[in-house]
Amino acid sequence: MVSAHDAPEWRATHVQALSDALRTQGHEVTVHLQPGDQQDPQLGRFVDELRAEWEYARPDLVHGHFWRPGLAAVLAAQPVGVPVVQSFHGLDHGRGQRAGVERLVGREAALVLATCEHEMLELAAAGVPRSRISLVPRGVDSELFQPHGEKAGRSELSRVITVVDPLADNGVADLVAALPRLLGVELVVAGTLGAGEADRVERWARRLGVDERVRLLGPVERADLPAWLRGRDVVRVPARGRGRRGVGGDGMAVGRRRGVRARAGDVGRRGVGGDGMRRAGAGDRGRRADRCRDRRRDRCARAAA
C-alpha cells in the first residue's frame, strides 16, 4: 500500500481497514506513507526509497491511494516490474498539475479501481482504457454502522446532517441558504471544512438569521459518527464528497433510510428500496429545501425507522 502521511482520516481509515482485511486472509501487507511535505524533491526521495526496497524484496502487487502516492507507486514499481493497482478516491476536474498526473497514473497502472459508475466514466474520459477499470463499490462497516447503539443528543428541532470533506465542494452554503424555508429544522455539519469555509458558512448563517440552527461539529471520530447518524431525521449526501462517498450507505445501515442526495453518483446504485433516497439538483436551493421538508414530513418512513 502506498498512501500519504498527511492523508485525511477517511482515507487513512480506508487504507488501514483494507490492509487489515487482507492480512486476515493470509496476505503480507506493508503500508508506505509518503511524507507530509509533498514537494517534488521530497517525492523523488520517496520514490528512490520505494524502488530500493522493492528491488531488495519485490512485492507481488502495489496499491496506490490518491494521486501523488499513486505517482510515486508507478515511478517506483515500473523499473522493478511490479504491477500497480490505483485508487484515486476522486478525480480533479481542472487542467492543472494534479489532473495531468492523474491521467498519467491512470494510463500506466495495471488496474484502476472506481467506486461508482460515475467515476468509471470520469476515468474513461481521462484516457484510462476501459479494460483496465474495475468497479468496486464502497462497502459499509456493518459492525460499526448498525441500528442499535447510542444516539447523539438533540433538541426538539428536526435534524439534517451532512458529512463533509475538506478537499471537496460540500455545498454547505446551499444547505444554509435553504434553512429559512425549513422552519423547525437544524443543520449539523460533521467533519472538517476547507480552509476558510467554516468562517464563511458562519457569516452566511448569521446574515440569513439561522445561525442558531447551524452546528459545525468539526472533526468527528469515525467511531462517533454512527451516533450522529442515528440521531438525525435526514442525511444529506454531498455532491462531490470524496471522503464520505459511503455516507449514504452508512446512514442507511444505522436503520434510518431517509436521505437527500445532491446529484446522481455512487449512492444511486446502492439498491435503495422504495422512496428512501431522493435527489435534488446541485445548487437548487429551493428544491433541496422541498426535498428535506418532504423527508421530515414522511410519516411512513419515520414509523418504519
TrEMBL record:
All copies of the Glycosyltransferase subfamily 4-like N-terminal domain together span 13-143
Asked if Glycosyltransferase is a keyword of the record, the answer is: yes
Pfam families reported in the protein's UniProt record: Glyco_trans_1_4, Glyco_transf_4
Origin superkingdom = Bacteria
Question: GO molecular function, one example?
Answer: glycosyltransferase activity
* Key words of the record: Glycosyltransferase, Transferase
InterPro entries named among the record's database cross-references:
Glyco_trans_4-like_N (IPR028098)
Q: Where is the composition biased (Basic and acidic residues)?
A: 276-305
* SUPFAM superfamilies, per the entry: UDP-Glycosyltransferase/glycogen phosphorylase (SSF53756)
Keyword flag Metal-binding: no
The UniProt annotation puts the region (Disordered) at 266-305
Protein name, entry field? Glycosyltransferase subfamily 4-like N-terminal domain-containing protein
